[in-house]
Amino acid sequence: MRRFDTVISAFIPAFAALALVSCNKNPGPPPNATQTYGQVAGGPHAVPPVAAAPADDGNWTMPGKNFASTRFSGLNQITPANVKTMSIAFTFSTGTTKGFEAPPLVVNGTMYIITPFPNNLFALDLTKPGAPTKWVFKPKPAAASQGVACCDVVNRGAVYDAGKIFFNTLDGQTFAVDADSGRMVWRTQLGDIQNGETITMAPLVAEGKVLVGNSGGEMGVRGWIAALDEGSGKIAWKAYNTGPDKDVLIGPDFHPFYAMDRGTDLGVKSWPPDAWKIGGGNVWGWISYDPELHMIYYGSGNPGPWNPDQRPGDNKWTTGVFARDVATGKARWFYQTTPHDLFDHDDINEIILADIPWNGGRRPVMLRPARDGFFYVIDRRTGEVLSATPYGYVNAYKGVDLRTGRIVPNPEKAPKVGRVVRDICPASPGAKDWNPAAFSPVTGLVYIPHNNLCMDFGAMEANYISGTPYVGSDVKMYAGPGGNRGVFTAWDPVNRRKVWEIKEDLPLWSPALATAGGLVFYGTMDGWFKAVDARTGKQLWQFKAGSGIIGQPISYRGPDGRQYVAVVAGVGGWAGAVVSAQMDTRDPTGALGFANAMKDLPLKTTAGGMLYVFTVRR
Amino acid sequence: MSLRRPLAAALVPLLLAGCSYQHYQSDFGGGAVEDRQFLTLFWIFMAVCAVMYVLVIGFMVLAILRRGRVSDANVVETGRHHRSHPLMRSTLIGWTALIGVGLAGLAIASFIADRSMAKAATGEKLSVTVTGKQWWWDIVYNSADASKTLRTANELHLPVGVPTRILLNSSDVIHSFWVPSLGGKQDLIPGRDNDITIVPTKTGIYRGQCAEYCGTQHAHMALVVVVESYPDFLKWWQHQLQPAVAPASPEALAGYRYVTSGPCSACHAIGGTPASAQVAPDLTHLASRKSLAAGTLPMSKGNLYGWIADPQSLKPGNKMPTIGLEPDQLHAVVAYLETLK
Amino acid sequence: MSSPFGASLLLLGAAALTLSACDREEHHSRGKPIGETVPAGSSPQTIFPGSSLPPAPDMRAKLYDNNANAISRGQQLYTWMNCVGCHSHGGGGMGPPLMDDQWRYGSGIAQIATTIAEGRPNGMPAWRGKLTEDQIWSLAAYVRSMSGLPSKDAVSSRSESMSGPTPQTLTPHPDTTNSDAVPQ
Predict the structure, then answer these.
(1) Is a pLDDT exceeding 90 seen at residue A184?
(2) Which of A370, A371, B265, B328 has its CA 20 to 30 A from that of B319?
(3) pLDDT digits (tens, 9 = 90+) for A410-441
(4) pTM for this structure?
(5) DSSP H helical segments within A252-371, as ranges?
(6) DSSP per-residue string spanning A41-86
(7) In whole angstroms, what is the distance from residue B90 CA to residue A333 CA?
(8) 3.40.50.10490, 2.60.120.560, 2.60.40.10, 2.140.10.10: CATH of A2-53+70-131+155-615
(9) Bridge-partner residues for A377, per DSSP?
(10) Domain limits, chain A
(11) Known catalytic residue at A501
């Protein structure tokens, strides 16, 4: 008995140590301290091209702020010195409770807000106190379109051009509304919900063409991008992202940089027979435009179904970035970021146009924090990848072979039918999903709000029935290494490294805003709207909104000459579906796997749709 | 003389096994390299065991005939084994040696046969993925050129003389791939990648079936394997890749409309049409197959009618529901399916 | 009582017990042709104005509700017909969750069958003409099982999917009395 006691008491410290060690295996998220990795580099840094990013006129006419998609405001009244006194100027309730991803637009004293389904368009008069409503335009889209929208019934924004507001509705229509009167100028039906097609993206207007793309990569919808004539709404051209070359508008002007993207009718040959017709490759994200090269750039979404064994081949032209001539739609070059995509790593993320210092001169490139976890710097004239550096934790890929341009997947993490492959990082929302980063020409840094998520992926056979999901997987996501699900990174694209980062408990699903005043703004999914110093990342101000923030913040000059910062708070989207769709979190596979990672969200925030406008009062 | 008739009766099945008309589903078919290796081993075992059997029976008969003789009774009673009869001792030693040699020989033969079967499993030129589903076979011919991937069902075509590696998987429960004339059994286990390599040597039509109980209709889960020359095989593959023929007659057109918009397209795929569902057999070239419903019925117009009208009565419990078509719908659907050659 | 008599009594009792279990396992793979004489959409909480009587319950309810074979067939159809793509394994996503106790259109098996057959305004597709009546009612039986409504000896003890919530034999029966309980 004595000996037994001695033995046990000898082991107690060991057991305790073991228990304590295992306790710390997944520490809770650290306090929101900024982790600094270096200083902002001196010397020449990246700047946006002048033609695509003109000087700020105080308005915000398109979600990306300009054609280069910098999301940078040239206003500098609000600075790190005075932002701590920033307070509410006015608020506005949109009446919706679904995920709010769109930015408000401000054009010469009027603010325009496009809501998620039912996609109402509000015009607020900023010249009057309290910003009363001037008019409301209600497109009344088909209610059944809510049943074929994969990731909440969001809308990513409207755009203003030449006196009209252009926006898309969930049931596949594009509207042009007169910006003064709120009367409809034209509307065009582009998508068919019977096929599972919806439209959630914000259009881009360039050279008199309204550029629109469809959604539906989870519904077996064939992806396309179309250009509508700005005045009449008639389709000028339409290019598909799968299928024969004549549908993809590939002709003699098409010069992809890498051999893997060269060939005829690759949009058919790299699929099993007929699979390209239900193959995905949708354009539900961002388009940028270079006025000097007359080219538009956009990425294509995931191939369908998620189960890769049902679609052997490279699955062109999905998960890649296209450069097209804006007047005719003809493809100029293409780079496939993830051939034969394995993890739903859509390539629709924003394309920030920049000119970077290169060998003594400057090189016109695009900066892309992509879903697969790599930050790409690609020459926007030719499609040559200059660098691909991981900006988050990646174990699903071994790297990008810059000689062939081909990403090298990790075979251990490839999905297998009938089995669950565990610990795949980044998870399917990627190191960063749709929410765009901001780029400051003052600091030369790209401010990336993104995720730190890994997943278990169980592939199974998907059945195609048009109008229903075509996925073929059970997914469970969870926090990546470190235990924090989100992270805000300041990235130096020239030196290819992090300068500072802020770990966040919840994934960051809101875009970022950078200002000339030296601040960066972003929102968290539990409703904190934060201002941090653009150079050091130190948090200077925060405000708790009524609902989680997944929408784009903007900054504009009001009629009174003051600088305002505005954002709409309404949690939802794919990450927030747990709240906006009132899901049951006992099922970890809900919302394509996000339910497992967001079980605590219903306690941290509730649904809403409120506009908050802030300013600094002297 | 009283033994002659039972002996003859014992030998007749052996003789019948060599009959050619049973080769289409017979372990003795010898249609492939693996099967021939197996057969060689079988005959070796048969010979050795037959010899042993004859010897054992012979000794037993001898013992029965010599019963009652008292010559060696002392040995048993006294228990002094070391003074056993020299003939008995050498017989026992010789018998043990014979068994030892025999078993060693069988083991070596078995090892050689196993190793040569495994060697045939390398260097495959053709790769086919067979997924077992209740109660049919989903067959995909893999190709380095993705657009030549062929999906078909229940009928496997193999080129003669070409090593074919068949990857085996299952969507639901454990099945077993067994074409007796071509090779042995290999299970299809959900979540596991198994494979079997077959090198067919004789052209012809063979029948296989599921060899692991997999549910109500396990008995009706047969597989037709057609072994043909390599050029014929390529022609068949090329033909099967073609999308379905557009319907010509008005009745076939009505059938096409029903099939692609009605319940059929919730589960079946027909290449070149909007029907792209994948949980049921691919019907693009249904009428070119030799059997219906995984070998349940031979392919014919009448059987098509019967199957479409009421699959539950022919294969009760299978996953295809009885829809209860109107007569004109049934005529139209069968007219269309018959064009899918 | 003599031993053989007692033994045969025991045997008779055992036989009776085993035979009584047969009803639950009735396999009707073809579906019985019962006429559509009963409106399927009403619930115990539907208002029938002017003291009118509620209609008799649908006869198919008895055949499919609590029938293990129907629930099992429904389980396979749930994945095949992509219900899992919108509703996950009960947690919801594009569609509302099916494992909670909030039913906008009612939780009775006839109401769920109506929902599946006719669709619903906010995006539930209409499967009439795409699925047979037997398939629709089997699916309705399975959908009910996700929230713990049928008896525990009829539901599937294995989810047959690689990831998902706890097995339905462990899902508690909801304590909401209102079968039309609606969120917000």
Answers:
(1) yes
(2) B328
(3) 999 999 999 999 999 999 999 999 999 999 99
(4) 0.89
(5) 266-269
(6) P-S---B--TTTSPPP-S-B-STTSSTT---EE---SS-TTTGGG-
(7) 89
(8) 2.140.10.10
(9) A367, A387
(10) 2-53+70-131+155-615
(11) no
The CA distance from A535 to A520, in Å, is 9
Beta bridge partners, A514, equal A72, A520
User: ipTM score here?
Assistant: 0.88
Distance CA C156, CA A475 (A): 22
B185-188, strands of its sheet edge to edge:
B155-159, B222-228, B204-210, B175-178, B185-188
% of residues, chain A, pLDDT over 70: 94
Burial of A214: CB neighbours in 10 Å, binned 0-12, 13-18, 19+: buried
Q: What is the dihedral of CA A572, A578, A583, A589, to 10 degrees?
A: 120
Q: What is the chain C residue with the closest CA to B268?
A: C80
Question: Is residue B101 classed exposed, middle or buried when 0-12, 13-18 and 19+ CB atoms within 10 A define those classes?
Answer: exposed
Q: Residue A609, Cβ neighbours under 10 Å: how many?
A: 25
Residue of B nearest to C131 (CA): B263
Spatial distance between the Cα atoms of A33 and A317, rounded to a whole number of angstroms: 42
Chain B residues within 8 A of A466 when measuring between CB atoms: 274
pLDDT band at A29 (very low <50, low <70, confident <90, very high): very low
8 Å CB contact between B339 and B259: no
Confidence of residue B22 (pLDDT cuts 50, 70, 90): very low
Cis peptide before A317 (omega within 30 of 0): yes
Q: Residues, chain C, total?
A: 184
Residue of A261, A348, A337, A343 lying closest to A299 (CA atoms) = A348
As a whole number of angstroms, the distance between CA A302 and CA A278 comes to 12
Mean pLDDT of B254-265: 95
Residues forming beta bridges with residue A137, ordered by sequence position: A121
- A457 pLDDT more than 70: yes
User: Before A139, cis peptide (omega within 30)?
Assistant: no
Within 13 Å of residue A355, how many CA atoms lie on the same side as its CB?
14
3-class state of residue A270 by DSSP: coil
Which residue stretches of chain C have pLDDT < 50? 35-38, 183-184
> Rounded to an integer, what distance in angstroms lies between the CA atom of residue A60 and that of residue A344?
32
From the list A168, A302, A452, A596, the catalytic residue is: A302
pLDDT at A22: 46
The sign of the dihedral angle between the CA atoms of A252, A262, A345, A503 is negative
Provide the 3-class DSSP secondary structure of residue A611. Answer: strand
B-proximal residues of C, 138-177, CB under 8 Å: none
Gap between the Cα atoms of C46 and A252, Å rounded: 66
Q: Which of A261, A314, A341, A344 is an active site residue?
A: A344
Sorted by sequence, the CB contacts under 8 Å of residue C135 that are 6+ apart come out as B321, C73, C77
Exposed e or buried b per residue across A41-76, where buried means at least 16 C-beta atoms within 10 angstroms of its C-beta: eeeebbbbbeebbeebebbbbbbbbbbbbbbbbbbe
| CATH top-level class of C57-153 | mainly alpha
**Two tokens at A48?**
């946006």
Phi, psi at A135, each rounded to 5°:
-160, 165
According to DSSP, the residues that pair with A125 across neighbouring strands are A110
pLDDT at B80 exceeding the cut of 70: no
pLDDT digits (tens, 9 = 90+) for A55-69: 999 999 999 999 999
| Beta strands A513-515 and A72-73, pairing class | parallel
Report the Cα B37 to chain-centroid distance in Å.
16
Closest C-alpha among A347, A364, A393 to residue A49: A364
Catalytic site residue A344?
yes
Contact (CB<8Å) C85/A146: no
